[in-house]
Write a structure and sequence with these properties.
This protein has helices spanning 11-27, 44-60, 92-97, 101-116, 119-129, 132-150, 154-165, 169-196, 202-219, 232-243, 255-281, 289-301, 305-318, 323-335, 339-352, 357-369, 373-390, 394-407, 410-424, 427-438, 446-458, and strands spanning 4-5, 40-41, 69-73, 80-82, 87-91. It is mostly helical.
Length: 461
C-alpha cells in the first residue's frame, strides 16, 4: 500500500512508507484492496465529522469532496497518511489526542496537500529512478533506526545510520531529500488551504509541537539527512513564520464544532477504552454531555441497559436534533435483544439524517429482528438505499437474505445468500445458492443474470 504522512516522528514511520512503496513498485500492488488488513472503524458520527472537517479544505484544493474517502484506523498513535490515491487514513489516536477540531483539520489539510500535489505518484517515480541495491540498504538502515526510536535508544538509531552509510549514499540522500521536499510542499499547501477557508494553521503547528516534545531526546542524535521529513523544530519555525501572516491565525473553532469534537472523543473512549477509561476521563461528578455519552456507551456495552437508557434519554432530551443520540439508543436496545423498541429511535435518526448508509443498515437489522413481514419489507427498502453509499458488502446481502425469507421471497433470499457468500470468498456456497436461485428466476431476467454472474465468478479457479 502506498503511504505518505505528516508525522515527523518519522523514522519510526518512514520504513513502513518506503517498504510499502517498494511493494507497489515491485509487485503492482494497485491490484490489492485499498485498506489491506488495517483495523478500520466504521461509524456514521465520526465519518460525518471528518467530512465536515475536510469538505471546505478539499474545495480549496480544487478536489471533488466526493472523490476522496477518509478511513478511520483503530490505532492509539497520533498519525494520518494518504494511501492508494485519493484516500486519507486517520488514526483514532489523532482524534483522541487532539485538543481542538482545528488540530485535526490542520493535519487533514496537510494530507490534502499530498493528494493535490500528486506526491504518491511522484514518489513512485523517484523510487523507480533509484538503484535497487541502494534502496534495500536504505530499508535495512531505516528499520534499525525505526527500532531505535521505538525503543527510545539513540545508540540503536545511530547504528541504523551506520548501516545506511554502507549503501550508496548519494542515491539514498537524493531520495530522502525529495521526501523532505514533498513534506514541506504539503505543509505550504495546508497553509494555503486553511487561509482560503478562513481557518487557523495554529492547530497543525500545535500537533507538530506535541510530536516534537515526545521525540526530542531520540531525534537529537539522528542525522537530519536520513530523515524523510524536515527536522521538527525547523519545520515548526518555518510554519509559524508563515502562519502568523494569515489574518485568520487567531481564529477559533465554533462552539458547535468543539462540542461535536468532544462527543466523538467520548464515543471513542466509550467503545474502545471501556468502563475504566471512561471513569478515568470522566469522573462521576462530570455530568457534561460528552461524559454522559461515554458513560452510556460503556454501560450498554457491558449489558447494563437499565442504567444506560436514562443517560441516553437525557442526551436526546437535551439535544433532540442530534441523530447520533437516537442511533445510540437504537443500537443499545438492539444489542440487548430489544429489537422492537430499537426500531423507533433508529427511524428518528433516519428522519434527521436520511441518507446515511450505516444508520440505514442498523435500522434494517432492527426491523428484521422483529421477524414481521411488514418490517422485513421496510428493511429491504432501507438496505437497497444503503447500497448506494456503502456499496456491496456481505453483511448487507445477508440481511437482505433474511428479509426476503421473511417476506416469502425464497428466490431472492437464495440470490442474496449467494452474493454474500461470493463476497466472503465462500465459492462452494456461492455456487450452490446461485444455482438454486437461477432455477427460480425466468431466464434472462435481471435476477437470473445476477445469479449467472455469481456462478461465473465463483467458478473461476
Amino acid at each position: 500500500m502506498q503511504r505518505t504522512g505528516f508525522i515527523f516522528r518519522t523514522v519510526a514511520r518512514v520504513m513502513a512508507v518506503v517498504t510499502a512503496l517498494m511493494s507497489i513498485w515491485l509487485a503492482a500492488a494497485q491490484a490489492q484492496t485499498p485498506t489491506g488488513g488495517l483495523p478500520l472503524i466504521r461509524d456514521a458520527e465520526i465519518e460525518g465529522l471528518l467530512r465536515l472537517y475536510t469538505r471546505p479544505v478539499f474545495k480549496a484544493a480544487g478536489i471533488n469532496p466526493k472523490a476522496v474517502r477518509v478511513y478511520i484506523i483503530n490505532d492509539p498513535r497520533i498519525n494520518a497518511f494518504v494511501a492508494g490515491g485519493q484516500r486519507i487514513f486517520v488514526n483514532t489516536g489523532l482524534l483522541l489526542q487532539a485538543d481542538t477540531p482545528n488540530q485535526v483539520i490542520g493535519v487533514l489539510a496537510h494530507e490534502t496537500g499530498h493528494i493535490a500535489g500528486g506526491h504518491l505518484a511522484r514518489m513512485g517515480v523517484e523510487i523507480d529512478s533509484a538503484n535497487y541495491t541502494t534502496i534495500i540498504g536504505m530499508l535495512v538502515g531505516l528499520a534499525a533506526i525505526a527500532g531505535g526510536i521505538a525503543a527510545g535508544s539513540s545508540e540503536a538509531a545511530q547504528a541504523g545510520q551506520g548501516i545506511m552509510a554502507g549503501s550508496q549514499g548519494l542515491a539514498q540522500r537524493n531520495f530522502l531529500t525529495y521526501a523532505r521536499g514533498m513534506e514541506s510542499s504539503a505543509d505550504q499547501a495546508a497553509l494555503k488551504y486553511l487561509t482560503a477557508t478562513h481557518q487557523s494553521a495554529k492547530g497543525m503547528i500545535e500537533v507538530f509541537e506535541k510530536l516534537a516534545r515526545e521525540n526530542i531526546a531520540v531525534l537529537a542524535d539522528v542525522d537530519p539527512y536520513v530523515m524523510s521529513h524536515p527536522m521538527p523544530m525547523d519545520r515548526i519555525r518555518i510554519l509559524e513564520e508563515a502562519a502568523k501572516k494569515s489574518p485568520y491565525y487567531d481564529s477559533k473553532d465554533s462552539p458547535a464544532m468543539v462540542l461535536r469534537h468532544k462527543l466523538v472523543q467520548a464515543k471513542l473512549i466509550g467503545f474502545i477504552g471501556g468502563p475504566q477509561a471512561v471513569m478515568h476521563h470522566y469522573p462521576q461528578a462530570d455530568q457534561s454531555m460528552p461524559a454522559r455519552y461515554a458513560r452510556a456507551i460503556a454501560l450498554f456495552r457491558k449489558g447494563d441497559i437499565k442504567n444506560a437508557l436514562p443517560l441516553i434519554d437525557s442526551l436526546t432530551a437535551e439535544l433532540p436534533e442530534n441523530p447520533y443520540f437516537w442511533e445510540l439508543k437504537g443500537q443499545a436496545l438492539l444489542e440487548n435483544g430489544r429489537a422492537a423498541e430499537a426500531a423507533a429511535p433508529l427511524e428518528k435518526a433516519l428522519k434527521l439524517l436520511p441518507n446515511t448508509g450505516l444508520i440505514q443498515i442498523l435500522a434494517a437489522q432492527a426491523l428484521i429482528d422483529t421477524e414481521t413481514r411488514e418490517n422485513a419489507t421496510r428493511a429491504i427498502k432501507l438496505l437497497r438505499q444503503a447500497q448506494r453509499t456503502e456499496g456491496d458488502t456481505p453483511e448487507t446481502y445477508l440481511l437482505m437474505a433474511r428479509a426476503y425469507g421473511q417476506t416469502g421471497d425464497i428466490a431472492r433470499a437464495e440470490l442474496a445468500t449467494a452474493e454474500a457468500a461470493l463476497l466472503k470468498g465462500d465459492k462452494k456456497l456461492a455456487l450452490e445458492k446461485a444455482k438454486a436461485a437461477q432455477g427460480l428466476f425466468k431466464t434472462g431476467s435481471p435476477e437470473w443474470i445476477r445469479a449467472n454472474d455469481v456462478l461465473t465468478f465463483a467458478g473461476r479457479d
